[in-house]
Amino acid sequence: MFQNNSLAIYVKIQLVAVLILSGAFYAQAQRNTYSPYSRYGYGILHEPNFGNAGAMGSVSAAMRASDEINPLNPASYSAVDSTTFLFDFSITGTYSHFKENGESGKVGNFYLDHVAMKFPIMKNWGMSVGLYEFSQVGYLFGSATPVKGIGGEEDTYAVNAYTSTGGLNNLFVGTAYRFFNHLSLGFNWNYRFGNIQYVDVLTYPEQSSYATTYVYDYLKLHQSTFEFGLQWEQKFGKKHQMVLGGTYTMSAPFKWEAYSVEMVQDTTYTYYNIPGNPFTSPQGFSAGLSYTYDNRLTVAADYRQQNWKDASYFGVTDTLSNARRLSVGFEYLPAFVGQSYFQVIKYRAGLHFSESYVKFAGQSLKEIGFSLGAGLPVRGIRSVINVMFEANRTITADPNLIQEFNLKLAVGITFNENWFVKRRFN
Asked: Is residue 17's pLDDT more than 50?
């Protein structure tokens, strides 16, 4: 007989998705970076590690596949099988090393990187929903300053401690349609939200008569914005395919709430009142190219830019720089069916060079890095375990500034199963 159990399975996966999404919201509230440069702007802009792209230098503009989710170009959602459902999530661990004037520090961390799903609406029409971090804020550092004694008291010193946590998240809902088997058009509705807390503490360890000062600043933000994408795919013969892709992201204002609390002996609340649109996100665009041979070898490159120089931050537009990123990467599959497991693993590698939107010492911070990874098929099903390793280094204009070196290890799973078919049971 025939039994249609796809609905029950679909309900189960929705429940799992809700649970993991709930966990994602909790994870986003944790400190996911310790970089002192996250003190500036909205924090360190995060590169999510979706599927194969993270290990390929985070190329995205021209990447499309029915077994991958690529929210960085929504036009890719049209690459979807009519009977399959994708569910993808990843956990990331980081190790950071900081060095300044002969002093150094090390710290490790891990967090839920993203959670997303992609499913068909009809032939050539797909949809995706997911959540990932947009920015990360989290630092802890301090300094000591000599202070001359007052009224005959001995000279002493003041200790300033600075710490912060928070960041912004990006919830996206997007769809795309493929026209004439070549052109795909899509868009994302992005809802960005989060809060950032800054705490500054001034103490005088050797003078109990000097009051300790606490300053607490709170910033809560949320906005809606749209991102549009297109991809043109062209096949040459039976084994060659090329994809051209691009995206455009609209500028949008943030809705906001901000206040400051200073505590010395009494508590004083100060609410910010900044006219106009004091917080905005910028326009951005990307363009890229990918080439695939025999569905086993893919080489891709793309360029991304966000015009943060024109965006408003606390009511001014000269505190940030334009962010740029150039990425190249490749993926190689030795064989579709192999005599050993190693022959059916997808091997990946990539390079990237970027300029941050953070302006420090009059210049934007730069970063260079490389990545390696693999797509490990799960025997008996079409799901894949994605593993990615990345090493990157922050480059500053002045070598005496804080030098930062980061290692990242991400492990994710892409569930790729049939959900809308009848199953036969004996």
From this structure: no
Cβ proximity of 344 and 378 under 8 Å: no
What is the distance between the alpha carbons of residues 87 and 14, in angstroms, rounded to a whole number?
10
Euclidean distance between CA atoms 36 and 143, whole angstroms: 13
Single-letter amino acid, residue 339: Q
Task: Give the domain CATH number at 86.
Answer: 2.40.160.60
What is the average pLDDT across 195-223? Answer: 84
In this structure, the number of other CB atoms found within 10 A of the CB of residue 130 comes to 25
Which stretches within 202-241 are classed as H helix? none
Q: How far apart are CA 163 and CA 229, in angstroms?
A: 38
Q: How far is CA 358 from CA 23, 225, 256, in A?
A: 30, 22, 21
Beta bridge partners of 76: none
In terms of C-beta density within 10 A (0-12 exposed, 13-18 middle, 19 or more buried), how is residue 208 classed? exposed
Judge contact between 95 and 25, C-beta under 8 A: no
Helix (H) or strand (E) holding 400: none
Please state, in angstroms and rounded to a whole number, the distance separating the CA atoms of residues 74 and 175: 7
- Largest distance between two CA atoms of the chain: 97
Please give the DSSP secondary-structure letter assigned to residue 82: T
Global confidence as pTM:
0.87
Q: Per DSSP, what are the bridge partners of residue 186?
A: 176, 229
Distance CA 77, CA 368 (A): 30
Tokens 């919830």 -> residue:
171
CA angle 393, 397, 398 (to 5 degrees): 100
CB 87 within 8 A of CB 74: no
Query: What are the C-alpha distances in Å from 76 to residues 10, 63, 314?
Result: 23, 7, 35
Q: Which domain holds residue 127?
A: 2-424
Q: How many domains does the chain have?
A: 1
Q: What does the pLDDT read at residue 236?
A: 92
For residue 320 the two structure tokens come to 């940030």
Q: Could you tell me the CA-to-CA distances from 305 to 70, 124, 286 in Å, in that order?
A: 18, 29, 6
Reduced to 3 states, what is the DSSP secondary structure of residue 30?
coil
The residue among 24, 25, 34 whose CA lies nearest residue 112 is: 24
pLDDT in tens, 169-194: 999 999 999 999 899 999 999 999 99
